[in-house]
Amino acid sequence: MRKAMVNAVSAMLRGHEDTALLLVDIGVWAFRDVLAAYPQRAKNIGIFEDGTVSLAAGLSLAGVTPTVYGISPFIAQRALEQLKLDFVYQKTGGNFITTGASYDFSTLGYSHYCPEDVATLRLLPGMEIVAPGTPEQFTALFDACWNDGRPTYFRMTDHCNQTRAAVEFGKAAVLRRGSRATVIAAAEALDATLAACGGLDVTVLYYTTLAPFDGETLRREYAGGKVFVSTPFYEGSLTADIMQALSGRPVRLAEAGVPLEVLRTYGTKREKDAGLGLDAPGIRQRLESFLRQ
Amino acid sequence: MTEAAKELRKELLRTSALGRDGNLQSGFSSLEILWTLYDRVLRVTPGTAADPGRDRFVLSKGQSTEALLAVLARKGFLPQEELKTFCQYDSRIAMQADRTKLPVEISAGSLGHGLPMAAGMAWAGRILGRKGRVFALVGDGEMNEGTMWEALLFAASEGLNRLTVIIDDNGSIGRLIDMGDMRAKLEAFGFETAVVDGHDEEALAEALSAEHARPLAVIAKTVRGYGSKTLMEDRSWFHRYPKEEELPALLAEVDAFDSGKEAVR
Known about the structure:
- The complex is a heterodimer of chains A (293) and B (265).
- With 293 residues, chain A is of the alpha/beta class.
- Chain A folds into two domains: 2-155, Thiamin diphosphate (ThDP)-binding fold, Pyr/PP domains (Rossmann fold); 173-292, Rossmann fold (3-Layer(aba) Sandwich).
- Chain A has helices at 2-15, 32-37, 49-61, 72-76, 80-89, 117-121, 135-145, 190-196, 215-221, 239-245, 269-275, 280-292; strands at 19-23, 42-44, 65-71, 94-99, 128-130, 151-155, 173-176, 182-186, 203-207, 209-211, 226-234, 252-258.
- A seven-stranded mixed β-sheet of chain A has the order 2-1-3-4-6-5-10, sandwiched between helices. In chain A, strands 7-9-8-11-12 form a five-stranded mixed β-sheet, with helices on both faces.
- The radius of gyration of chain A is 19 Å and the shape is globular.
- By secondary structure, chain B is α/β, with parallel strands linked by helices.
- Chain B has one domain (3-234): Rossmann fold (3-Layer(aba) Sandwich).
- Helices cover 39% and strands 11% of the residues of chain B.
- Chain B contains nine helices and five strands; from the N terminus they run H-H-E-H-H-E-H-E-H-E-H-E-H-H.
- A five-stranded parallel β-sheet of chain B has the order 1-2-3-5-4, with helices on both faces.
- In chain B, strand 4, helix 7 and strand 5 form a beta-alpha-beta unit.
- Chain B is globular and about 55 Å long.
- The interface between A and B is medium-sized, with 30 and 30 residues.
């Protein structure tokens, strides 16, 4: 996905003189070509994410569309007030691409984890949140959003899905239809979720746009009075959107997500998934138990 | 103090009384700076307020919004009458400005945001080959914020010579920490600097119009509440508004103010 991201951002820079790239001392090697080709507007500007997001807002307000690339917690949390005040309040557009996802940097510890980015940023009105699961999905979503005049958060992951699915910005993809429940899978949780659903009579919706949340598809595909949510985010990140979409209908809800805990384990991302019950067997167990209720 | 500066201060007092809110000490402190910018320095008019090549003014210290509004009204950016709607529920104007409602460059309020945004604007001007300059008015107390120094580092490192930072230095930070020599710090960061009497319009106009090869920082020495004996002496005026019965005396104080006797630090 990183390669697709570098290609998409580089194509934007080549094609549009009123665009800029701000690196916070990561991705420097990957972006070496555009850093050399466009030194005025593609810069590794240093390690100060909060100020960087403000600088990006100044660019945006003066007619240059900025793209900032950083690590998820340092953009979504360190620079949260800058996203809120310098983009959302000013009503101006920009792109924030992050690496690290929830705990891709598993060995670096809690400081580098961000399973709360979606829950946090969805409270910024007008902020778009996309979480592609494959390189092709990154490209499709970036091309759809980078120049739409709104702030957009692109949550990348190094753990892409093998499942290919065509996605459209703002829309959930309907991957399977069944009658006993609607399963919502998001971002890189799709592969494990689909494996967990094997042989079960359930609908599977795949969300790569988390904000604005596609409630319409959920309402239309709502099956069996049950919603099972499987995401790599902190549990509860999508609950408000789901309940709002299904307002007025009886809903039974269960979830396989990251528990609201300070994660103190290391190892690999896969080991963490397994430890938290977010691998295919873990999700299957929760889903079967939910369907039996 | 010039007649214009006196009239604007009285406008602020009346606006605050009507809107029942105010940061008058800050507004009075910044008044000459704001007036000089719009009267003599900035190449922007109500007719060119959306021109991409305009000079841009960024109010980073949002507490001086009320003074900015009075200056904008005087210069025709908003109707003078509209000042009477200050802080009303459906008004365009209040204690902090909203750029989606008003011809201002940013919606301010939280300190430490305006200067880095101004630096971004100056950077954009360079990318797009524009002539317009960018001026940011910051408070000396605001210089406590880390993002201010991040922006200074970036602006100097990039040589953003169309950026001017004006520090409304009214001694706020001295109450908090020992800031040391602000000018030496700014020069060490790579800025050209000037120190002027922040209530002297001539001196401000000269410093703000000077050519500079590197980004410029103008330290404007000011006094909180300058122009009113009461506001200068009584700390409680940082955030309060004149009650109806207090207004005549405060207006008279501004009229009687003798700048010769009130030496700036």
